[in-house]
Every structure is written in structure tokens, then in C-alpha cells.
Amino acid sequence: MSQDGAATISRRRFLQAGATAALGAHLPGPWVGRAAAQAEGPLRLGFQVHRTGIGAVYGRWYERATTAAVKLINEKGGIGGRPVEIVAEDDGTDPKRGAEVVEKLAVQHKVDFIFGTLFSHVVIASAPRAGELKIPYIVVSEGYHVASGRLNRYVFQPGITDVRAQVTAVAPWILKNLGKKVTLIFPDYAFGHDHRDFFSRVATAQGGTIRALLPIPPTETSFTKYFPRVPADTEVLYHVMVGPGVLTFVKEMGEHFGARRPQIFGFIDSLEGVDLASAGLEFLEGTYFWEAFPRYAAATMPQHVRFYRERVGVNANGASVNDPRDVSTFSHMFGCWETLFVIKRAVEQSGYKKPGAAAYRAFIETLEGFQSFPEGTEHPQGPKRFVGRLHQVFGQQVVSKVEKRRLTVIHRTAIEDSMYAPEADYTKQPL
């Protein structure tokens, strides 16, 4: 995937100090030193985070969700009886830096596992290095790049669903309820290409027509030149946008189309970190969005959802309890929380103690053997089905409607609606 705002969490909120032991004399290459350092003491998790660059708003909230989850895990005794220590490194939402961060976390910081990456171009650039270093790399990214089989056996996405699953679930609803002649506006990189490819595939199969495809550079800050390219007979304008210009994008879309707009269906990425009550967004009234996890608190909601919202520090509007202008990335950041609990489960069930070929094999094969994650405190977004051969989790999706400057849930898909035939099998790859 896929605006800077309030300051990111201080590194002092993370425990980054750890004893560095002498190099282990009898361990294979990638794990020399790491195993000796981690034989005792905390379980060290390397957090690859977008503190700067176009993913900064996501990074800020990924960091807060991570902090909240680790605090809860440590309150309950840690992982396998060991306290969890987070070692965070900023990758600048930059592919080159992403690979460097993976190396730094594994070799210099000697972490047990690496997790947290979001933007797909950073994941795709970083994953090969994790495979070379033979360290599990657990991403929170959404892109189809994991489930496609494009990466390697060390890469997992067990805490958040992928674009193909999301589109597969909601596209039939869009075509049935909003129209069959669709124009897509999307960011011109892997995340956007997944939307382009998989929505087009589903729409065509169900009798829809793609009227136009409008890719936009993710660093774009002005969008007025793109909207005149939308064909006049478009019935549905499908938009997904990321980066620092998302508010400008939505405002300029409203200025161009006004009251004579087609039906509009957006992915919440276009407004993650943005208050729907912001000036210029009035035209969104009556339009629709995909959400993974409803940002606005419902009148009634399960206790585990209420608990999660309190722990990550959001108010009823999904903004920071400390600053109502600081709006969360609610449909994505839960993936960090849920991923940490998946890591906990895999570590404890596999008996993992320290880095090494046998320990990582046990961890990976244990994780590949998981089939489901029940809804609750550890998985507040909803129940999940995990497909080990794809290293990918599947879950429910939400369609929400803008009503009175808020998002109201009007449809929730079943997990089965998002399933697709596997095209890969990581379990056949060597370790």
C-alpha cells in the first residue's frame, strides 16, 4: 500500500536494550550470534515501521496498536513466559531502505522475528532479504503478493486480509446494488494493480464492464487532470488512493462531479487518517466505502471490540482520545495487534526458544498448520480462516455508507465470500 501528522511514538516507549552475547561457535551462518544473545531473556521482535514517507500516518497508528498489544501480552506473562521487547526501525516507506532495515534488525539487533511492514512495494523489496537471512518475516500489508506465491516461505500475512479477498467479497455487492459500468481510479503500484486486476476479473465474470482504468502515482498531490478522463456513461466510480494527498483527492473529486456524480464506492484507504467531517467532504454523503474494521463505534458492539478500542486509545469517531484531529487508520492497524497474537500462538505451540534452523522450521510449520483464529480479544476484527499453503488469512469484509458525516455499516460479508482458488503452495518450498 497503502501524511504526516502528530508526532510518532517515542522510541523510549519501546524496550530496545538487550544484552549482546559472544558469537555462538557451533551455529549455522544466519543465526550465529542471534541465538547466543537470545537463549535467555526477552523475545525480541523487530518492527519494520513506516515512521516517515508516504506511509507515515499508517506507521504512527501501527506503532500505537503494536505498543498496546505488547503491553497486554506482557501483562499476561509475555510469550512462552518471556517478556516481549520491540525493536523498531523506520524504513521511510522506501523499498531500498526496507531491505536494509530487515538486515539491520536481523544482523545488528539480533531479533527473533520481523513484523509490521505495510506498503506493498516495501514488502516486495524486503522479503527476499528475509528469505536469504532465513528469518520469519510477518507482514501487515494487504497486498496479494504474499498469497500469490511471489515471495518465499519465510513470509506470512496472518493478521490482515489481502486485496484479492477483499475485492472478491465486495465486488458482487457493488455490481448488484450500484451499477455494472465501472471506472477504477487506483495508485500506480502493486497495491493498486491488485485492485485493478481482481476487480476487473470479478466484474467481467459477473456481466460488468470496466469503462476506464486510471492509475495515479502514489506521490501525486493534485488530481483534477484525472477526473475528466472518467467516461460519461460510468455508473460506478471505484476509488482507492493512498499517501499524503488523500484528502485533496477526495475534495477535488467532489468539486469535479458535484451533485451529478455517478455512484461512488471507495476503499477506506482513500480516507484513512482523515476526518469525514472535514471541510470539502460534504459531497461524500450517500457514497459507499469498504472497511475492514468499522472506524465509528456502534451503539452496541461486542465487549472485545470495546476493549480493543480502549487499549489502542481511540474515541467513538476512531480518532485519538488525546487529540480528536488525529484520526486512526482503523481498518489496517488492527493487523498489528492480531499478528502479534498469532506470533505468540505459534511460538508457544512450536516450542520456539532461540534462532536456529530447527527452531524456525518448527515455528514455520506450526504456523502453516493453523486453520482458524476465533473472534475475541486476540482477534477483535472478527473470525479468521488461515490457509497455510498461501501463508494468508481470510476474514469478513464490511460495506459502509456515509450518513451524516459518519460511516454506517450496511453489509458484512461472510468469510466464504472472499475465498479464491489457491495459486501457490509455500509448504513445498525448502527451508
User: How many strands?
Assistant: 15
| Helix-strand sequence | HEHEHEHEEHEHEEHEEHHHEEEEE
**Overall structural domain count:** 2
Helix content range: 25-40%
What characteristic shape results from the CA principal axes? globular
Q: Beta-strand percentage?
A: 15-25%
Largest sheet: 7 strands, mixed
Secondary-structure arrangement, i.e. CATH architecture of the largest domain: 3-Layer(aba) Sandwich
Give the strand line-up of the largest sheet: 7-6-8-9-10-14-15
CATH topology of the largest domain: Rossmann fold
Task: Compute the number of helices.
Answer: 10
CATH class of the largest domain: Alpha Beta
Derived structural class: alpha/beta
How large is the radius of gyration?
Answer: 21 Å
Which residues form runs of ≥5 with pLDDT under 50? 1-28
CATH H-level homologous superfamily name of the largest domain: Response regulator
Distance N to C terminus: 28 Å
Keywords, please?
2 domains, 431 residues, Rossmann fold, disordered N terminus, alpha/beta, seven-stranded mixed β-sheet, 10 helices
